[in-house]
Amino acid sequence: MPDLVITNAKVLLRTECLPGTMVVQGEEIVEVQPGHSYSTSAQDWQGDYLIPGLVELHTDNLEKHMEPRPGVRWPARSALLIHDAQIASSGITTVLDALFIGDLRTGSVRAEGLATALDAIAAASAGGLLRAEHLLHLRCELSCANMMEIAAPLLSHAKVRLVSVMDHTPGQRQWTRIDKFRQYMQGSEQWTDAHLQSEVDRIKALQSQNAQRNRRDIVQAARAIGLPLASHDDTNEEHVAQAQADGMKISEFPTSEVAARAAHARGLATVVGAPNLVRGRSHSGNASALDLARERLVDCMSSDYVPHSLLHSAFLLHARAGWSLHDAIAAVSHTPARLVGLADRGEIAPQQRADFVRVRVLDDVAVALETWRAGQRIA
């Protein structure tokens, strides 16, 4: 007897939307078929969508809960459980928590919270307290003098699935516009022009001293053990060419159409911010995700700092960018899973892990009514 039969659902397969039935045995999908099941034990989903569990490659949501207000530190284990519940209720069944390796600001939650975040993930995982599966994305800030010292021991961590290289020096990449850098960095404080200039000068000096060496070392170390690499905030063709030369497979949050086109031309997959698509613009004044999607320069989406935006963005790709719904859902499930070597999830198909979501759409907002991982309901 199957453990679970779901029927009367719009099943999002990799190449079509099929009105039909899915059968789960244990942790695995064993059958997908068109039509209605008349089994008395079948769950009737009343025409709601049945989609794969979402796969998130890059989220800062954990650190947001570790510092719920500027200067306020929240206990890491409590923050993780809040983050995890939010992830699961957003339809995300696999999440790569993006942890900063090095930070340009001393005393920040990113600079001080790495060890406690890792401890929280390990303890909650061992205790069976997490709903989603939590893996790790190491975000390496190239300008920090001790970046490699921190990163090297973590590269062999069993949960690490992705390494990205970042350079948040003002005046380039994400912070091409200094006014946006100022707005983001000052928080609730008001920076004088003199203080702003001193910060810009300080960070540029750090970049000059450390970035080239750190990039070389982290790329060599990650490639030596076969970890996928991503380049962060590519802005121009030169950035993308450097990423390709370094063996990177992902261009994460390209800031311009020029960079996104160059990435596709050179065989790099692009990851674009879902909040950008939902809001209709970038908070940093960079390229519009919707414009990139309409030009088919997007491979997958990331929720970045708003977990629910991942599901929301997939249905917006269909409604506003003209994508087929099955391709839009693949951009938040199948494609990100395959980019980091996860072949057992991200698709509604036999022999895939039973990670799936029941979705209903209200106006243009998709709502995760139920989230299941490995055949068990988690939200």
Using the CA coordinates, give the radius of gyration: 21 Å
Order of helices and strands: EEEEEEHHEHHEHEHHEHEHEHHEHHHEEE
Shape summary: globular
**Using DSSP, what is the number of strands?**
16
What structural class do you assign from the helix and strand content? alpha/beta
Sequence stretches where pLDDT stays below 50 over 5 or more residues: none
Helix content: 25-40%
Q: Determine the N-to-C terminus distance.
A: 25 Å
Biggest sheet character: 8 strands, mixed
How many helical elements? Answer: 14
- The percent range for strand residues is 25-35%
Helices and strands in order, then pairings?
Blueprint: E1 4-12, E2 17-25, E3 28-34, E4 43-44, E5 49-52, E6 54-59, H1 61-66, H2 76-89, E7 92-101, H3 109-112, H4 114-126, E8 133-141, H5 147-151, E9 160-166, H6 178-186, H7 193-224, E10 229-232, H8 237-245, E11 250-252, H9 257-265, E12 269-273, H10 274-279, H11 289-294, E13 300-302, H12 309-321, H13 325-330, H14 334-339, E14 356-362, E15 365-373, E16 376-377
Parallel strand pairs: 1-4, 1-5, 6-7, 7-8, 8-9, 9-10, 10-11, 11-12, 12-13
Antiparallel strand pairs: 1-2, 2-3, 5-14, 14-15, 15-16
Description:
It is a single chain. The protein is of the alpha/beta class and 379 residues long. The protein contains 14 helices and 16 strands. The protein has helices at residues 61-66, 76-89, 109-112, 114-126, 147-151, 178-186, 193-224, 237-245, 257-265, 274-279, 289-294, 309-321, 325-330, 334-339; strands at 4-12, 17-25, 28-34, 43-44, 49-52, 54-59, 92-101, 133-141, 160-166, 229-232, 250-252, 269-273, 300-302, 356-362, 365-373, 376-377. The strands form two sheets. Strands 1, 2, 3, 4, 5, 14, 15 and 16 form an eight-stranded mixed sheet that branches. Strand 1 (4-12) and strand 2 form a beta hairpin. The radius of gyration is 21 Å and the shape is globular. It starts with a strand and ends with a strand.
